Amino acid sequence: MILSTKRRLFGFSLFLLFTGLYASVARGQAPDTLQLWPEGAPGAMGTGPLDVPRISVNLPPKDKATGAAVVICPGGGYVTLAADHEGKQVAGWFNNLGVAAFVLRYRVNTWDHRKYGYPHAFNDATRAMRLVRSRAAEWGIDPGKIGILGFSAGGHLASTVGTHFDRGNAKAKDPVERAASRPNFMVLIYPVVSFTTEHTHRFSREMQLGRTLDSTLAEYLSNEKHVTTLTPPTFLMHTDDDGVEPENSVLFYLALRKARVPAEMHIYQKGGHGYGFYPKDNPALASWPDRLRDWLKGQGLTK
Q1: In angstroms, rounded to a whole number, what is the distance separating the alpha carbons of residues 96 and 91?
Q2: H-assigned helices in the chain
């Protein structure tokens, strides 16, 4: 009797085990999450989730992989992160194209200015670029095909990385810090760009620079003023009725043209702000990811 009961329990345990394994396979493996600084981020104010910048690693199937990769910076006004529709969903879209995607959870401020302003988010994004490039061989990535994408305030962060990069520190003990931070391409979606014009998104600027405006720092972070011939090729998208005014994209595009940097920009009439990759009830605007896919293919990043 006891033996029979043990056999039934053992059989039931196997059933649970295989059911769990099947469910795990059916769902797919959750992406790995890596801290940018395993021993603690520089300037961290604590050890809670908001104090630990990290990336989620989303790799495409090996038979689809093109060798390209992108670091994704969700928006949120530098006070929160829209990590689902401007992060996780976007990573899945890129994986379907064979592009490795790394969703960045960078440090942000709080409404009462008790957390992180400049340069913490910039340091996090720069570190993410270095980390991906330093581990490119491990992840099957071409180190010359690593880009950055940002939405809204994340677009400001991405464009800051794309205009304020460096070659890395060849003498650094940390191998990550030896890698260059320059993106090979940029994708800016309804981005904040300017910190000095009438088109500035003042809330994002305040969350970075504080309530008292430092005009020198604002000039430095007004990224349309820092485009050079070394700025990476860029795709921009905006809508005409966006609360983050489309002049942010226009000013950056004009600077790219002046520097003879390859660029493409799309401005749709309606759509507002914050819709991510899948705007609802707007068939015209819903086509914008197709334009991005065409551009990525033209840049030799997808098949």
Answers
A1: 9
A2: 2-27, 89-96, 120-134, 136-139, 153-163, 202-209, 215-220, 247-258, 288-298
Does residue 183 have a cis bond before it (omega within 30 degrees)?
no
33-51 pLDDT, tens digit each: 999 999 999 999 999 999 9
What's the CA gap between 268 and 248, in Å, rounded?
A: 14
- Domain containing 5: what range? 1-28
Summarised one tens digit per residue, pLDDT across range 47-88 is 999 999 999 999 999 999 999 999 999 999 999 999 999 999
Cβ contact 243:216 at 8 Å: no
Question: Which DSSP symbol is given to 29?
Answer: P
- What's the length of the chain? 303
Task: Look at residues 133, 166, 164 and name the one whose alpha carbon lies nearest to residue 147.
Answer: 133
Edge-first strand listing for the sheet containing 69-73: 32-35, 54-58, 100-105, 69-73, 146-151, 186-189, 234-239, 263-268
The whole-angstrom separation of Cα 71 and Cα 149 is 6
Closest CA to 185 of 56, 302, 60, 301: 301
Judge if 2 and 93 occupy the same domain: no
CA dist 227 to 51, 98, 237, 254, Å?
31, 29, 18, 10
Residues 154 and 279 in one domain: yes
What are the φ/ψ torsions at residue 58 (nearest 5 degrees)?
A: -120, 100
DSSP string covering 40-75: --TT-S-SSGGG--EEEEEPPPTTT--S-EEEEE--
Residues 157 and 201 in one domain: yes
Structural domain tally of the chain? 2
Q: Tell whether 303 is covered by a domain.
A: no
Whole-structure pTM value = 0.90
Q: What is the CATH number of the domain that holds 57?
A: 3.40.50.1820
Give the residue among 145, 164, 141 at the shortest CA–CA distance from 227.
Answer: 164
